[in-house]
Amino acid sequence: MCGLRLRNPTMLASGVLDETAATMVEVARAGAGAVVTKSVGRSPREGHANPCVVELDVGLLNAMGLPNPGIEYFSEEVKAVKREGVTVIGSVIGGSEDELAEVAALMADAGADAVELNLSCPHAKGLGTEIGSTPENVERVCRASKERIKVPLFAKLTPNTSSISNLAKAAEMGGADAVVAINTLKGMAISPEARMPILANRFGGLSGPAIRPIGVRCVYEIHDAVEIPVIGVGGISTGRDALEYIMAGATAVQVGTAVWTRGPGVFKSICDDISRFMDEYGYSKVDDMVGAAHDTKP
Amino acid sequence: MTPSLRMLRVAEHRNETPWTKTIRFKDTVDARPGQFVMVWVPGVDEFPMSISYMGDRFGITYQIVGDGTKALSKAAEGDIVGIRGPFGRGFSITGKRILVVAGGAGIAPTAPLVEAATKKGVAVRLVLGAKSSAELVFENRCAAAGAEIHVSTDDGSKGQKGFATGLASSLIEKERYDSVYACGPERMIVAMTDICRKKGLPMQASVERIMKCGIGVCDSCALDGKHVCTDGPVFDLEELEKFSELGKTRLDRTGRKTGI
Known about the structure:
The structure holds two protein chains of two kinds.
Chain A: E1 10-12, H1 21-29, E2 34-36, E3 53-55, E4 60-62, H2 71-83, E5 88-92, H3 97-109, E6 114-118, H4 129-132, H5 135-146, E7 153-156, H6 164-173, E8 178-181, E9 185-187, E10 190-191, E11 196-197, E12 204-207, H7 212-225, E13 230-233, H8 239-248, E14 250-255, H9 258-262, H10 266-281
Parallel strand pairs in A: 1-2, 1-14, 2-5, 5-6, 6-7, 7-8, 8-13, 13-14
Antiparallel strand pairs in A: 3-4, 4-12, 9-12, 10-11
Chain B: E1 6-15, E2 20-25, E3 36-41, E4 45-53, E5 59-63, H1 67-72, E6 80-87, E7 97-103, H2 107-119, E8 123-130, H3 139-144, E9 148-153, E10 160-161, H4 164-174, E11 179-183, H5 186-199, E12 203-206, E13 222-223, E14 226-227, E15 234-236, H6 237-242, E16 249-251, E17 257-259
Parallel strand pairs in B: 7-8, 7-11, 8-9, 9-10, 11-12
Antiparallel strand pairs in B: 1-2, 1-6, 2-5, 3-4, 3-6, 4-5, 12-15, 13-14, 16-17
């Protein structure tokens, strides 16, 4: 995909078990085909105060607030992961196109195999969605970053918009080599007993099974709108979930919240499920299934 | 995928020492000794806390160290506190004769361990270390459970003067134990790890790191690729020995390794 060779189509999604090199290596050993790092910016960030997660019956609501040690420090973590032979995609954040491009360049210099622009975190002021909510911004920041790096550029898009296809088209226009869809949906949980939102940041991003139908729909729409590959993410915890995304048009998938419920073994489990399905239904490669749901009318 | 946050009413809130308090709730939390909960003081903070009383009228024992525990210390009977968990891997009780070493606030998770062990018929020696006699917690509780207690204080105001590790080390020289359990400052855990390695004694220790999610997703409590919230907080000797970061570095809130 985009010149990257992955040993399987699963990746660790950004924000989960990816702040330290040792953990990322563990997740890769447990079966992830690639790992996407925590989103990293120019300067260190502590993230939001606790509580920063709410466990729900339908998923997970989080407002970590993009904690990260800053790109200068994090470059060493990326190098340490690369030394173990793991495919690393560096997720980056910035408050402006220049800052994003600068961090993207430093991430590529550190040895990241690709750079993912986080244009979609719903809970950090001045970052994420606040940068990536309009097609004009998405195109501009992609172009600025693309000029600074030689490795593939991914744009991770927000579903908190009226048309994610328009954002995907803008990313493609700006030179992105792939789009990643979707990030979390903006949400809130309230404790009636405490009479206040539970998250210290008040609102956060919803992930997990509840958002899978939204993610699948977004990938399906994006597949129709752009030529570049789509990486599907949102509520995947089984091979069947991954196959929904693949048949909607995803070339690869990312898994985050399922690491909470199923542990790092979830990657191998998803791959085994996919292999069994391919054997049973006569597919010889994943590529033959990408977008397959578009070929037949219900 | 089960929501674990429960809003519990305070049943009792008492001072153990001028800086240490125990809060008991009207509710039941089934847990193993060594497991922890995330404690939410609405509008202030959420932080991890060892469980000091299991089961009915479950409770936590804490020192006032920051804004969160300061706000918690003002909670009165009937007030509401949020609790997530129990989380993590607790102690497993093995052997007929064990040595428990608790330094300072480390007594909180070890008191229920002492109770569970003596209830199983295990002979328990407890080394209880504190800065001074005024800061000793749960001495009577552990004695009532049937543990033989050896006290050390930094200032010599009670028991042997010095650190808990010195006292533990001399007990290990004198007597045979099937297993050693440690909870307290990290330098104490490192020292106990060294002693147990040399003596070939099985050991378990509870480790602390900054914790945000508590459920194994955020990587804030990473320790050499393991996670204190889900793989720990109790680790055995084999794991403790492998930790290159133990006693040396910890992650700050940004994810930078900083010296301890």
